[in-house]
Design goal:
29% of the residues lie in helices and 26% in strands. The chain is α+β, with helices and mostly antiparallel strands and 180 residues long. Helix 1 (11-26) packs antiparallel against helix 2. The two termini are 31 Å apart.
Length: 180
């Protein structure tokens, strides 16, 4: 697998990848929702508020996985991004591609001076790439959480994940209670 920052020309294939991956695991309706979320993030989010990375098969350049980070803001100044959504096409799952792609993305964020990374999902998966569970009393999520143990963060600096009082906000495409 080779890892790259996405190109605008990749957007239709990225949308299809998210649609197919989530349709395979959660059903067609969920696939459609997450495919549309990915497309909206990539077409309506300012570039300075977005990172997107893809994994492509070395042989045929097929898109195998994609991760999207978008800016999350707090009342105090901190440079932070949230990882959501993440998808690895079903035939490529279980090979460590998703974890390698996430590490690749986190390294790029770190190189660009991003201080914190967040995600919302399965702790057992995200622990493997350095995320840790954080209580909402420590750092508030942008929307009420339906799965509070899935609120995760990691520091991309030498410092520990700080307590950040006050509200947080995410980019408009992700600011929908159905994703939380």
């Amino acid at each position: 697998m080779e890892f790259f920052a996405y190109q605008q020309s990749d957007i239709p294939e990225i949308q299809a990848l998210f649609h197919q991956t989530f349709a395979d695991s959660e059903g067609e309706a969920e696939g459609k929702i997450i495919g549309e979320l990915a497309a909206e993030l990539l077409t309506r989010t300012p570039q300075e508020d977005l990172y997107c990375f893809v994994a492509k098969n070395e042989n045929n350049k097929e898109l195998a996985a994609c991760i999207i980070f978008s800016r999350i803001q707090f009342e105090q100044p901190v440079t932070a991004f949230i990882l959501s959504p993440v998808a690895v096409l079903t035939p490529y799952q279980g090979q460590g591609i998703g974890q390698k792609l996430i590490r690749f993305g986190l390294d790029k964020l770190r190189q660009d001076g991003v201080e914190l990374a967040f995600t919302y999902g399965d702790p057992s998966f995200y622990y493997q790439v350095g995320f840790e569970q954080i209580p909402e009393t420590h750092i508030k999520a942008p929307q009420p959480l339906s799965y509070p143990i899935g609120w995760l963060a990691q520091s991309l600096t030498e410092a520990a994940v700080p307590h950040i009082p006050g509200k947080s906000s995410c980019v408009p495409a992700l600011n929908n209670a159905e994703y939380w």
